Amino acid sequence: MKCSLSLLALCACATLASSAAWAGPSRADIVEARKLVYQGQKAEKANSWQDARTAYDQSIQRNDTPLARIRLAHVEEHLGHLLEAVEQYRVVAGLKTATYVQKYQAKTAIKRIEARIPRLTVEVPPGFSGSVRIDDNDLPASSYGTAIEVNPGTRIVTARAAGFRPFERSVVMAEASQQTLSLELEAMPARAPAAAHHVEADSSSSSGRKTWGYLTVVVGGAGVVVGTAFGLAARSTRHELDGECLNNICSESQRSTYDRGKMQADVSTVGFVVGAVGLGVGSYLLLTGPSEPEKQSRAHVAPLVGLGRVGLEGRF
Length: 316
Description:
By secondary structure, the chain is of the alpha+beta class. It has eight helices and nine strands. The protein folds into three domains: 27-114, Tetratricopeptide repeat domain (Serine Threonine Protein Phosphatase 5, Tetratricopeptide repeat, Alpha Horseshoe), CATH 1.25.40.10; 119-182, Sandwich (Immunoglobulin-like), CATH 2.60.40; 206-315. The strands form three sheets. The chain has a four-stranded antiparallel beta sheet, with no helix packed on it. It is elongated, with a radius of gyration of 41 Å. The chain starts with a helix and ends with a strand. 19% of the residues are buried.
């Protein structure tokens, strides 16, 4: 029994050891990470700071070491990314694999860089319920009116709120500076309702009677034109279906053609109805109205014809 328990414990230890070994970086990752650190150092000497940043970041992904993070923090600081530099140094200060010297170096750098970080306060109007962004980062509502650490350089502050024009302002932040930006939101102008244009005609007078007569005749004529055009189109569509359908039975593939023909026939019917009514009423008004000298300012009327609609536009 004791032998079995010992054997079981030995197996468990071996399993844990193998799991720990599997969770860590492989030998190939460690070798590649060292090469990337070397490439980053070469890029630093050549003042290729972005290349150095990429190399150190890739090295950390392969094998997270205090050296790679210290070098990355140095590059971030050189690029003016003070917040990112402090973040890397804080990671180093908490790494168990970091030496005493490396941790001391990280803590010293944190104090030095924090003194250089500028702070920006964004003040919003009372009752503000929109959103604020500094560069590409959303500013939480809890941070309104609070000094926020930002990187030095030009920061872009934007704000959006319903009923107000979009707000955008550039703020130049020097190292260790403190600035306050108050949002000045401009309300969107209220949209005025579209003015309705009415054509008034005195139906009791001879000029008003003739005006309505001309209007209805033109509308009737336009209706006849529309009815004729769509009637011919419907007839053409009907011939097209006759060639494709057998015994008035059409396949599903002809549904769009059938629907088009039905629409053309309906519009044609409406056009002829409008035409008949318009011509009849217009003729009645013109024939029964008293004749008077024509006014110097004549009415200008033009038909307005479109798909499924008949109307007029003109000047009186």
